Amino acid sequence: MLPIIYQDDDLVAINKPSGLLVHRSAIDKRETQFAVQELRNQLGGQHVYPLHRLDKPTSGVLVFALSAKAASYYGQQWQENKVKKQYLALSRGFAPEDMTIDYALRQEADLTAGIEAGKEAQQAITHIALLAKYSLPKALDRYNETRFSLLQCTPVTGRKHQIRRHLKHIAHPIIGDSRHGKGPLNRACAAYFGLGRLWLHCQQIQLVKQDGSALSLQANIDEDFETLLNQLSAYKV
To answer: How wide is the angle at C-alpha 155 spanned by C-alphas 22 and 75, nearest 5°?
Structure first.
């Protein structure tokens, strides 16, 4: 059963587990489980319209409309970058305390949506805030100690893999990011902590309902994420 965190006549939101695809993908042809189908079955066959996407390894708030009319209304908020999103990420190294990353990104190819890679970069902005720093007295990377930062990431725009690519750009890639991170460090961390995934979680999404009222949807981190942070808490600096 998918954990439903909110439901009304227009919307339903879940706390998507890491490792679950939103819908079928040409990239993961062997996958047989998808959030769209599982939620539809869970709601007794109710058709659902995903309003946005989370990468397969990303966990957190995932919102669906329950009708074509609602999908059109809420989808426009996403298209116009009016939806406020907040993510939690564990990154490599000691990141700056507060920073706005304004770095244009080219459109990445998306086989699922039939989108080819773009030639011209598009504006992309992400605000980051440092929540905690950890220094593990063990060489999992190139140095005698391994440093981590727990970050709150607020993307202003919605480019594909934006947070992951922006953190790579400032040399603080997300731990567990197989595409934009450091493979040896990812593997070393997974082996040391006994936990392996992309440490990126969508904590909160804020949007405006059709009656004009504000709606804030929040999802707690999963057990693995909480376990990792508990292990790191002994090394907080």
So the answer is: 50
**Phi, psi angle pair for 7, to nearest 5°:** -155, 135
Q: Give the start-to-end residue ranges of the domains of the chain.
A: 4-235
Instruction: Report pLDDT digits (tens) over 68-100.
Output: 999 999 999 999 999 999 999 999 999 999 999
**Sign of the Cα pseudo-torsion (81, 203, 174, 128, in order):** positive
The pLDDT tens digits for 113-129 are: 454 555 689 999 999 99
Residues 6 or more apart whose CB falls under 8 angstroms from that of 63 comprise 11, 12, 13, 50, 51, 52, 74, 205, 207, 217
Closest by CA position to 205, among listed 48, 8, 54: 54
Does the predicted TM-score (pTM) go above 0.85?
A: yes
Residue 91 · residue 148 · CB < 8 Å: yes
Tell which wins on pLDDT, 197 or 24: 197
Write the CB contacts of 8 (distance below 8 Å, at least 6 apart in sequence). none
Position 222, amino acid: D
Q: Among all residues, which ones are annotated catalytic?
A: 55
User: In 123-231, where do the E strands start and end?
Assistant: 125-136, 146-155, 200-208, 214-218
What CATH class has 4-235? alpha beta
